[in-house]
Amino acid sequence: FVKMTSLFSSQESNSLERQIELENKVLKISDVWTANDLNRCIKFIREGSFSRVCLQFSDEILNYSVEIEKQMRKHIDSEVFLLADTSYGSCCVDEVRKLMKS
Predict the structure, then answer these.
(1) Closest by Cα among 82, 46, 52, 48 to 67
(2) CA-to-CA distance for 70 and 73, rounded, in angstroms?
(3) Is the predicted pLDDT of residue 87 greater than 80, yes or no?
(4) Which residues contact 61 (CB under 8 A, 6 or more apart)?
(5) Alpha-carbon separation of residue 46 from 7, 24, 75, 77, 93 (angstroms)
(6) d(C-alpha 24, C-alpha 26), whole Å
(7) What phi, psi does 55 have (nearest 5°)?
(8) Which of 16-20, 83-87, 94-98 tops mean pLDDT?
(9) pTM, two decimal places
């Protein structure tokens, strides 16, 4: 018998012991998000008639997530949610919870 969580995640120690290399390059919001990106997202959401939208960002640009979310809210009527979990490794529990409820 295999625990469901072991199928979707790595051992906790892997996350705690992982060494990452950081670049000293500081990204500006204009490096990762433009008016064209905003318009493409708005178009996609409207064409799909989505009532809820969830945004996930890579760790390097997570600090711009709130500003991007604010920009999107000005143009759409959908609820907008931000995933604040890491995008590295298999430590995200959102999918595991959803699968366990099924």
Answers:
(1) 82
(2) 5
(3) no
(4) 27, 32, 33
(5) 35, 38, 10, 9, 29
(6) 6
(7) -110, 135
(8) 83-87
(9) 0.61
